[in-house]
Amino acid sequence: MASSPYFSLAVLFVAALCFGLTPLALAWLWAQVYSPAKPNAIKNAIYECGLESKGDAWVQFRSAYYLYAIIFLIFDVEAVFLLPFAVAFTGLGLAACLAMLVFVLLLVEGLAWAWAKGVLTWA
Amino acid sequence: MAVDEGLKIELGKQGVLVTSLQELYNWGRRNSIWPMQFGLACCAIEMIATTMARYDLARFGAEVFRPSPRQADMMIISGTVTKKMAPQVVRLYNQMAEPKYVIAMGACAISGGPFKQGYNVLKGIDRYIPVDVHIPGCPPRPEALLDAFITLQKKIDGQHLTGEGRPRHLDAEAQGEFPVPVQGEHDLEPASNPGVWTVPVVIR
Ligand code: SF4
After folding, report:
1. CA B19 to CA B21: how far, in whole Å?
2. Ligand 1 centroid to residue B122 C-alpha, Å
3. In terms of Cα–Cα distance, which of B114, B119, B172 is closest to B138?
């Protein structure tokens, strides 16, 4: 067995395991002997800056937040694309202009839709 | 088993280090007190100053202010504890893992300080939780907070692992829960934790 080429690897593997597990075992042993656990309801409660937590953490967010995503796309991403377009405007051909127009119109349509839905009136 | 102090010094001179488990344990503990990141009023500014380069709390191994009570060993009550805040302070203390220590910093935390006559200021946090070190002052200078640290380190150094009078965290029987007061009609209820502090009887 000792002649196997993997023998030294196995020895090192066991040594590595011990290196990691021994401190953990010692810490566990120490806690068993010297540091009795003192759980109680207040201690085990959810930490919320000292306040009592109310309700469940597993809440659903309203899917209506997708409206914000759409408006973000219109106002933010549009600006990102419009800037290079404006810089290169004088050197652009008809096709590029038309493509850009389609892009802008699509977004304007989204804006009109959001407007009609009343999303722009911040309650 | 105890090694005589003089013998220990003698051996130390010869290059032999003799220590006990308890000493090693307390040495490790006292040099790695992690305070909770938690300021209440003006005293907190001095506490922050203490952690900065000029006063350098890191020299005592206590610069790691933790934002969660689960990772903290010590709570510095740095400022005025209002009656609205007191339940939160007590709950946070409860949520810290043992062993835990408390420094009451400044006149307010000790007794209500300049606001003692106020209707909404707690007259000393030691009504609800056990305080290890009190530092007077309004506010105490950073040097005073450092002094409180050193005092606490000395206290930790002197704690025994076993036997009578061992600290709470080593005693399986000792109570670990400190009831959180609730807002009553006129005051916090109860007005103090009798296990920690008894209301003195005023004789008129
Ligand atoms: S003791 Fe003085 S400095 Fe400290 S919190 Fe109270 S009023 Fe402020």
Report:
1. 7
2. 13
3. B114
**Residues contacting ligand 1 via CB (< 6 Å):** B 41-43, 79-80, 106-108, 113-114, 138-139
CA distance A65 to A88: 35
- B64 inside domain: yes
Do residue A52 and residue B91 have CB atoms under 8 angstroms apart?
yes
| Structural domain includes residue B28 | no
Q: What is the pLDDT of residues B47-82, one digit of tens each?
A: 999 999 999 999 988 888 989 999 998 999 999 999
Is residue B201 domain-resident? no
Q: Which residue's alpha carbon is nearest to atom 6 within ligand 1?
A: B108
Domain locations along chain A: 63-117
Condensed to tens digits (0 to 9), the pLDDT of residues B106-121 reads 999 999 889 988 888 9
pTM of the predicted model over 0.80: no
ipTM of the modeled complex = 0.76
Judge whether B61 lies within some domain: yes
Mutation test of the interface with chain B: which of A26, A29, A33, A34, choosing the one with the most B Cβ atoms within 10 A? A34
